[in-house]
Amino acid sequence: EAGVAQSPRYKIIEKRQSVAFWCNPISGHATLYWYQQILGQGPKLLIQFQNNGVVDDSQLPKDRFSAERLKGVDSTLKIQPAKLEDSAVYLCASSSTSGGAYAYNEQFFGPGTRLTVL
Amino acid sequence: GDSVTQMEGPVTLSEEAFLTINCTYTATGYPSLFWYVQYPGEGLQLLLKATKADDKGSNKGFEATYRKETTSFHLEKGSVQVSDSAVYFCALTGRTGANSKLTFGKGITLSVRP
Known about the structure:
- The structure holds two protein chains of two kinds.
- By secondary structure, chain A is mainly beta.
- Chain A is built from no helices and eleven strands.
- Chain A has strands at residues 5-7, 10-13, 19-24, 31-37, 44-50, 53-56, 65-68, 75-79, 88-95, 108-109, 113-117.
- In chain A, the strands form two sheets. In chain A, strands 2, 4, 5, 6, 9, 10 and 11 form a seven-stranded mixed beta sheet that branches.
- In chain A, strand 5 (44-50) and strand 6 form a beta hairpin.
- Chain B is mainly beta.
- Chain B is built from no helices and twelve strands.
- In chain B, the strands form three sheets. In chain B, strands 2, 5, 6, 10, 11 and 12 form a six-stranded mixed beta sheet that branches. Chain B has a four-stranded antiparallel beta sheet with strand order 3-9-8-7, with no helix packed on it.
- The mean pLDDT of chain B is 92.
- Chains A and B meet through strand 4, strand 5 and strand 9 of A and strand 6 and strand 10 of B.
């Protein structure tokens, strides 16, 4: 079974430029997450999708970050304009709903995209 | 809100040494607790989990017991190997189903020397 795919793996941009990251979850996984991992910290949830609907985007800086999951499969996370403090690893994860609405369904993580903003 | 606190690192051990990595949490209700591991150049992987008080999660020789009275989930291994060198994250989720985000600690880097 193929894992969660992300691209690009690395990106270097100047501040105020825009950037986009792509995620392809595990086939059949309805739930998709984007996490931000700043160096020396644990991952922090930015946004969670259930199929193509947003479940939680309370920690997404909506003035500069946007995300979409068209057709409930692939997802794109965009930053425009980027700031120095956006330098981080952006992780995508997916999970199924096979355990039911009241069970924990394991999240599977992609390798991440490392963003450096100069 | 929910939070996870891990002991400060990094940790360096000799092969076959005993490992303990401390983790405490703050959460409302009855969270599920996890240890994730990130090997060099790889993505985060679930190492073990426990979903209720007194549960013991175990995998690859690692163990952790969900202690509600001390709000702790310490990771232990009796004899570490060089291949255990990685970053370890303690995490919790306070909800299940549709809203199931993970809250992570800062992580700790473990280096095991031969």
